[in-house]
Write a structure and sequence with these properties.
By secondary structure, the protein is of the alpha+beta class. 21% of the residues lie in helices and 37% in strands. The longest helix is centred in the C-terminal third of the chain and has 18 residues. It has one domain.
Length: 136
Amino acid sequence: MLGQRIADPHLLEDGDIDGLGLLDVTTTLAPEKVTRQHAVRWTGGGELHGYEIHHGQTRAGPGVQVHLDDGLGWQQDNVWGVYLHGLMENTAYHQRFLERLGWQAREAWTPDWSSLLDAELDRVSREVMATGWTLD
């Protein structure tokens, strides 16, 4: 969707369509859908964990740079396109993303985002359960 064009040779969707043109990539939809947990190295350093999901093959053009290895992400200027979901649960990635937006914090303050998210979901669950609400 962020790329130049999406080809649909198997008519899985509504046929070929132009993309938004924000990344110099083209995608060809394939009948097989890839869904799996995946760990990958990224340009910011270290390993990221997430959920890979896509329904095709993307080819990068000369105007785009690799953002995630294994053909899972590209960047061009301030646009990033990835096939790895859950990236914001990776503390280093989340922090780097915020820093690119101009955010600065002391290293000691930066929380473990995955743990913070789990704690908040637990808190919301406890509050819902305390109301006595059920699915009935």
